[in-house]
Amino acid sequence: MMISEKTQLLVNHTTEYELLGKLKRNILYGIETIGFNLDANTKILCCSPDYSASHCQYLSHALTPTGVPLEVINVEMPYPKEYFDIECPVQLKTSYSPYGNKIPSAVKNIIIYDSAIIRGINFKELRDVLESEWANYGVRNVVWASMFLHSKSSFKPLVTVRTYDQDDLQFWWENDKNPYWD
User: Fold this and answer.
1) N-to-C CA span, the chain
2) Which of 55, 73, 80, 116 is 20 to 30 Å from 170 by CA-CA measure?
3) What is the pLDDT of residues 121-167, one digit of tens each?
4) CA dist., res. 110 & res. 141, Å (int)
């Protein structure tokens, strides 16, 4: 019996930079497709900020219609061997709650982003958690987006830039000895 070696997609700095521009264009197209009104109250939900924060920072500045960066809210997603135990982020509850600090009717649009959707299980769980909350607060438009999507993912976002088939994905800045991926 032959043991197959794992394959890996290595994303260098140049490729990541080029894909950020495509990501912005794809998100704008996705927003237009569903009739999403990109406004100053649009939020970006940054999943896995260890991997996605720099992309969300770029999107916050690149997608703003007013010049003021869009608000980014971080959500820690579990690694493959961790249990999914995510509640609706407090910042979102505050944004949409009639008892919060913000006007709930002002926030109707959210972009949910992760640099890579690999298995998709976490995103199905997150969608279920968030949708149950949003039903109470009138969120109208949600765009799920990722730079990379594994071809076997059980969750498919509206927007993605590149689909890949390799076993592993690694960005140029990642520590290849990260124990969470063993």
Assistant:
1) 24
2) 73
3) 888 888 877 777 676 666 778 899 999 999 999 999 999 999 999 98
4) 6
Structure tokens, 86 = 């995510």
Torsion angle defined by CA atoms of residues 127, 133, 139 and 144, in that order, rounded to the nearest 10 degrees = -10
For residue 44, what are the β-bridge partners? 72, 111
Is pLDDT at 103 greater than 50 in this prediction? no
- Give the Cα separation of 39 and 22 in Å (integer): 21
Q: How far apart are CA 151 and CA 7, in angstroms?
A: 14
Q: Are 114 and 47 in contact (CB under 8 A)?
A: yes
Which residue type occupies 22? K
Separation CA 122–CA 83 (nearest Å): 9
Nearest to 59 by CA among 75, 74, 48, 43: 43
Instruction: Check the CA dihedral 167-125-178-44 and report its sign.
Output: positive
